[in-house]
């Protein structure tokens, strides 16, 4: 599976680092295996997204921008755990624990 999150440019709200300030969005990719465990994880990630837990706004080099929040995502098909990619035999267990 290849979920794609398209986060638009907008203005931050109360609770963000600088409420009312514009921030940059972006395209975010995440990869899951196409198997029962991957599908189960996709459903949990969807719930987390709907609850506003997937992304956060951070200040980076003087500008506000959307970044991943604390839920780990696999953003590459290779490179292993060190590069947020596969192979990583523990990923589904680890993300399931966080979710």
UniProtKB/TrEMBL annotation:
Q: Which residues form a coiled coil?
A: none
Question: Could you say which EC number(s) this protein's record lists?
Answer: 2.3.2.27
User: What keywords does the record list, in alphabetical order?
Assistant: Cytoplasm, Ligase, Metal-binding, Transferase, Zinc, Zinc-finger
Q: In what pathway does it function?
A: Protein modification; protein ubiquitination
Q: InterPro entries in the record, alphabetically?
A: Deltex_C, Deltex_C_sf, Deltex_fam
Q: Which Gene3D superfamilies match?
A: 3.30.390.130
Recorded GO CC terms = cytoplasm
Name a GO molecular-function annotation: zinc ion binding
- Renumbered to this chain, the signal peptide range is none
Top class in the EC scheme: transferase
* Record GO biological process: Notch signaling pathway; protein ubiquitination
Subcellular location per the Swiss-Prot or TrEMBL entry: Cytoplasm
List the catalytic activities from the record. S-ubiquitinyl-[E2 ubiquitin-conjugating enzyme]-L-cysteine + [acceptor protein]-L-lysine = [E2 ubiquitin-conjugating enzyme]-L-cysteine + N(6)-ubiquitinyl-[acceptor protein]-L-lysine
- Superkingdom as given in the UniProt entry: Eukaryota
Ranges for domain Deltex C-terminal:
5-96
The similarity annotation says: Belongs to the Deltex family.
Its protein name is E3 ubiquitin-protein ligase
């Amino acid at each position: 599976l290849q979920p794609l999150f398209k986060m638009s440019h907008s203005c931050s709200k109360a609770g963000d680092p600088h409420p009312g300030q514009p921030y940059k969005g972006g395209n975010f990719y995440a990869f899951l295996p196409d198997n029962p465990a991957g599908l189960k994880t996709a459903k949990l990630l969807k719930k987390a997204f709907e609850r506003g837990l997937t992304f956060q706004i951070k200040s980076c080099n003087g500008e506000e921008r959307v970044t991943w929040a604390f839920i780990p995502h696999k953003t590459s098909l290779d490179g292993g755990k060190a590069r947020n990619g596969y192979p990583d035999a523990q990923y589904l267990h680890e993300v399931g624990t966080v979710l």
